[in-house]
Design a protein that fits this description.
heterodimer; A: about 350 residues; mainly alpha; 14 helices; about 70% helix; globular; B: about 170 residues; Four Helix Bundle (Hemerythrin (Met), subunit A)
Amino acid sequence: MDWINQLNPTAQLVLFSLIKIICVVVVLPTMFAYAVVAERRISAAIQDRIGPNRVGPFGLFQPIADGLKALLKEDFTPAHVRKVYYWLAPAITVIPALLVVAVIPFGSTLGNPNNKMVIADLNVGILYTFGIVSLGVYGIVLAGYAANSKYSFLGGIRSSAQMISYEIAMGMSVVPLFMLVGSLNLSDVISHQSHGPFSWLVFQQPLSFLIFMVAAFAETNRLPFDLPESEQELVGGYNTEYSSMKFAMLFMGEYFNMIAAAAMMVTLFFGGWTLPFFGLDQPASSLGTGLLHIAIFLGKVVMFIVFIIWVRWMLPRFRYDQLMDLGWRRFVPLALANILVTAAVMWLRA
Amino acid sequence: MQDALFYLFAALTVLCGFLVVANPFSRNPVTSAMFLALTIVSLAGLFTLLHAYFLAAVQILVYAGAVMVLFLFVIMLLDVKEEGRRKIKLFGLITGSASVAAIFGIFFKIFVLTTPTLGAGLPPPGLEGVTKPLGEALFTQYFLPFEILSVLLLVAMVGVILLSKKDLR
């Protein structure tokens, strides 16, 4: 390992960043593949069915079969679509979902304190996240527009209205967190949560967490807010006219968003890679503890993904007017009041 | 590296800005809106090169993420058809060329008549990434303009609500 120490700091930074990016780019699609399997198995269990269990032990190789099917099916382009946008939209859906992960600290260190387990330790981390998340709507809107058919179009229009509405509630729900932490950097948010079990921000700001979680469901177009693709009314919504790999990419974008939302909830409210016992809330000093921190983070994320999937098969869909009413007339005032109450409490305690 | 990135983002900004108003390949309003979004994103890239991370993030969050999506929403909802080629009108010609002349006048005065000492004696920028100095500046030095702008936005909001109400009692 001598040759690494001989490189100058810039080269080291570039090398480590590249390795981290490659790891994340490998881990995310794997999580996507198994989230789909988990979704199918959990939904089957909830509905008293068996679910896919034919490919490999317990159906664990199902993603390979699904992936091959998506790749090998005919990639059909309907004659009436707007070609450029039809080709661009799936890519635009996937890219923002991948970029969000860049600022999320997925572990402490691997022994060397100068090498944090986060791709970009930005000072405005949370604003970057919200900025990129807000770009995610383009993929869905353009997919709906490109397909040039009524159902897709309605799906696209619905998603843009829904995502803009809930972005506001989502953005305002996290303001009290950063008032408490005093920094927009996500690593600082985690170190703020490393002082015992009740320093996790979910215990200090339960209302924030509630609003953020519901808004995250709306932003990722998951049930109970999956109006952009509500099957009974819109066939498949914005992805109706898509087939084969392009459809798979739209699907992948949705799941990447779901994983990113789970990771954000873990980072902001559930202490990120920390656990409040065995001294696991301090940055790691050895390789083993570092890997354990990454495992803790991934474990928490998986728990949230399972929770999101469970909700999908438990709750019925909201009506569109209920969705808008909840977003604008309940959550926005609630989030505003939460900011002011937090500010008042902090001022009285200071 | 920084220079190369600056030229890349600057060229992208100008090119996309040009394609918003005069796209030779398509007169589709949605294409124009998408190029405007690209212009905004490349501007955010320029802000990042100036170490103004906060501005860059807010630029993307507010303009690319919210304002442009609303533009798209309205274009799609009203189903704006492709624009026909417009004839050049005398009024537009006069106002347009006057604006261009004024901008070039400003550039001429800055770069030719005065020696280029822009930012030479100034302290290094204090807004690097951290949001605290920006907040302090907004609530102390620039408090009045900030509040006036907020009231202006509030007035616009009340106006929209008033206009969109069907029956005014």
